[in-house]
Amino acid sequence: MTVHIDRDEHVVTITIDREHKLNALDYPTIDALLAGLDRLDSDDSVRAIVLTGAGRRAFSAGADIPSLAGSIAGGPERALREIVRRGHALTRRIEEFPKPVIVAVNGLAYGGGCEITEAAPLAIAAEHAMFAKPEISLGFPPPFGGSQRLPRHVGRKRGLEMILTGDPIPAARAAEIGLVNAVVPGDELLDAARDLADRIIRHAPTAVAACLRAVTRGINLPVDEGLAVEAACFAATVPTDGVRTGLRRFLDRTTAVPLKNSVSRTHT
Q1: 134 φ/ψ angles, rounded to the nearest 5 degrees
Q2: How far apart are CA 166 and CA 192, in angstroms?
Q3: Does a structural domain hold residue 261?
Q4: Are residues 61 and 151 in the same domain?
Q5: Are the C-beta atoms of residues 202 and 183 closer than 8 Å to each other?
Q6: How many folded domains does the chain comprise?
Q7: Residue 209, CB-side half-sphere exposure with 13 Å CA sphere
Q8: Could you tell me the residue range of the domain that residue 194 belongs to?
């Protein structure tokens, strides 16, 4: 097994476990990640996902090069089928997952590992983590969606600098440009990811899913179309228990606190 799934109450941790290969993404690992996400999607008791890598050296060093080389040797059709479509399926699944996916970057996030980080709605990095887009050194552009997501998230020029040079950047720089949310000491990484998950799942699952859907679907649309997405996501929550409970809690709290008497002034 190259993918391990562990549960702690409502939060599941998925670990890519190919530590001897720097958690490189061979085809069975990608397929196992997709299958695991499918199972967790259908389990309503699962509220959030933390995705990380085994060990401290790497979150994922990217696609497994021997697998990739074999597909490329088979020509463009085979390469598209085995590399691009599979990679797109994984990053799109993570990006559109209806529950928050928090990537805990515990080391190198190169190539496909960086593209997973880009696709995830949230990410926290260990201080020693490094990020890179080295595909250009192999002669091709990022094939798992990185040529599209990275410039959209960090800006065209910052994205192109990473894509065209292949040079790594440290975790602090990744946080500065918005590739990750926060940087923490390595031994605090999973606790920080869990804390972020807990701060999200205290809210109604219907509200969390609607927020994720509104942002993910609307972010690359013109504003008017994005506002239509937002309106549809809002409307979908109106009849839910989450809205009824949230409004009741707020109204009960405000009515339970008496208003302070205003101070009257007398005039002589």
Answers
A1: -85, 10
A2: 29
A3: no
A4: yes
A5: no
A6: 2
A7: 16
A8: 3-201
Residues 79 and 60 in one domain: yes
Question: For every one of its 268 residues, what pLDDT tens digit does the chain have, with 9 covering 90 and above?
Answer: 899 999 999 999 999 999 999 999 999 999 999 999 999 999 999 999 999 999 999 999 999 999 999 999 999 999 999 999 999 999 999 999 999 999 999 999 999 999 999 999 999 999 999 999 999 999 999 999 999 999 999 999 999 999 999 999 999 999 999 999 999 999 999 999 999 999 999 999 999 999 999 999 999 999 999 999 999 999 999 999 999 999 999 998 877 655 454 444 444 3
Query: What is the model's pTM?
Result: 0.91
Catalytic residue positions?
115, 135
Q: Which of 55, 44, 10, 33 is nearest to 197 (CA)?
A: 10
C-alpha–C-alpha distance, residues 61 and 11, integer Å: 25
Is there a single domain that holds both residue 154 and residue 237? no
- 237 and 132 inside one domain: no
- 263 inside domain: no
